[in-house]
Write a structure and sequence with these properties.
- This protein is α/β, with parallel strands linked by helices.
- The chain folds into 2 domains: 165 residues, FAD/NAD(P)-binding domain; 185 residues, D-Amino Acid Oxidase, Chain A, domain 2, CATH 3.30.9.
- 29% of the residues lie in helices and 24% in strands.
- It is built from 10 helices and 19 strands.
- The strands form 4 sheets. The chain has an 8-stranded mixed beta sheet. The protein has a 6-stranded mixed beta sheet with strand order 11-4-3-12-19-18, covered by helices on one side. A 3-stranded antiparallel beta sheet has the order 5-10-6.
- A hairpin with a 5-residue loop joins strand 1 and strand 2.
- It starts with 8 loop residues before the first strand and ends in a 12-residue tail after the last helix.
- 46% of the residues are buried.
- The N terminus and C terminus are likely disordered.
């Protein structure tokens, strides 16, 4: 089914919840410079351009976003699963995004893989105690965020019904219904193609810029979406290293993202089109961007093989390392260090899951100098210096 195109005003989601998608046709400025062409930079550039703004998008790298954390991510949209490491505010943002993503994808010039088949959580017998602890956390999250669908407990037969190849390997599991994923690289490419087609957008590649390079005047805005590139101006930012492996596994058939309870990392296997699987992700408090360690590589590949023996004959396409931009409380934030300047950062490991919520909050702030969504999601906005 093709995704619907968004329209302004109130919208009713698939769950029947009425919400407001920000209208952006009355912005109090005519031009915007956006620093950073990762996920947030591209989404915001497109939204502002579609609203009639002249947009200049600057990035230190090239159009393929090779230096962006978004290129390495698995792009899972799993608010309940992530509640194991995220507070209810982030979970609410993730739930909001599940119905917002199809609207955003419907505006793009190219198709993007997107699904909502739920998340499967599995564990081996030796990890049953950790799985029980996780189940208690998830149940508590559903109580705190009642708009989430309740998880389902599975036995071996239930697992086999969902994923026939896994029913003999696991005797217990959980299904987190309606969670989803998309293809991050298809999305980045589709955003690029759409931006290139717009006459009021200028793209500047291999053109690093700092906030100090701009003095926006009346009718202009500067928006910093550089992630770790903004560290010189936002010293609280740190990098959290993650290592991810992409493999091509024709012998493996999985329908939905599968998470394996693990004593060290929340490991996942995310199936993408054409039998490509993303296996990740380590989480290390380090800004080291060197290649993946042997230990991490063995742990990730061993976990994948333990889920499905077909991974033994998979071909490794890529072993990638990237650092996620993270603030001290591991929560995203807006900051407005001076008039007509906005910074968006700290999306941590939840970039694709919360990007639509961050986008819509940014649009409200830029249009109204305030945001009901920000209050709903308990987001820091730094409104003290947004005055035009």
């Amino acid at each position: 089914m093709s995704p619907a195109r968004p329209s302004e005003g109130a919208r009713t989601t698939a769950e029947g919840e009425a919400r407001l998608v920000p209208a952006v046709n009355a912005l109090p400025f005519a031009s915007a410079a956006i620093l950073g062409a990762g996920l947030m930079g591209r989404l915001l550039a497109l939204a502002l351009a579609r609203a009639g703004c002249r947009v200049e998008l600057f990035d230190a790298g090239g159009p393929q976003a090779d230096g962006a954390a978004a290129r390495v991510a698995a792009a899972m949209l799993a608010p309940l699963a992530e509640s194991a490491v995220a507070p209810p505010s982030v979970v609410r943002m993730g739930h909001y995004a599940l119905t917002r993503w199809p609207e955003l994808l419907g505006e793009l010039a190219q198709p993007v893989f997107f699904q909502r088949e739920g998340t499967l959580v599995l564990w081996h017998r030796q990890d049953a105690a950790e799985a029980a602890r996780l189940a208690r956390v998830l149940a508590c999250t559903v109580e705190q965020v009642p708009e989430l669908p309740a998880m389902r407990t599975l036995d071996a037969a239930g697992i086999a019904t969902l994923e026939p190849a896994l029913g003999r390997r696991f005797v217990q599991g959980l299904l987190l219904p309606e969670e989803g994923q998309l293809d991050n690289r298809e999305l980045l490419s589709a955003l690029l193609a759409t931006l290139e087609s717009l006459p009021n957008v200028r793209l500047h590649w291999h053109a690093p810029r700092s906030l100090d390079d701009f003095r926006p005047r009346e009718g202009e805005r500067v928006i910093d979406c550089r992630g770790l590139g903004a560290q010189p101006q936002w010293s609280a930012l740190r990098g959290v290293r993650g290592e991810v492996i992409r493999v091509h596994a024709p012998e493996v058939a999985l329908t939905r993202p599968t998470r394996l309870v693990h004593p060290r990392y929340p490991l996942y296997i995310a199936p993408k089109p054409n039998h490509v699987f993303v296996i990740g992700a380590t989480e290390i408090e380090s800004e080291d961007m060197s290649p993946a360690s042997v230990r991490s590589t063995l742990e990730l590949l061993s976990a994948a093989y333990a889920v499905h023996s077909g991974f033994a004959e998979a071909r490794i396409i890529e072993i990638a390392t990237q650092c996620r931009p993270t603030l001290p409380d591991n929560l995203p934030a807006f900051r407005q260090p001076r008039a007509r300047v906005m910074q968006i950062n700290g999306l941590y490991r939840h970039g694709f899951m919360i990007a639509p919520a961050m986008l819509d909050v940014a649009l409200e702030l830029l249009r109204d100098n305030g945001s009901a969504l920000a209050e709903r999601f308990a987001l820091a906005t730094g409104l003290e210096s947004i005055a035009p």
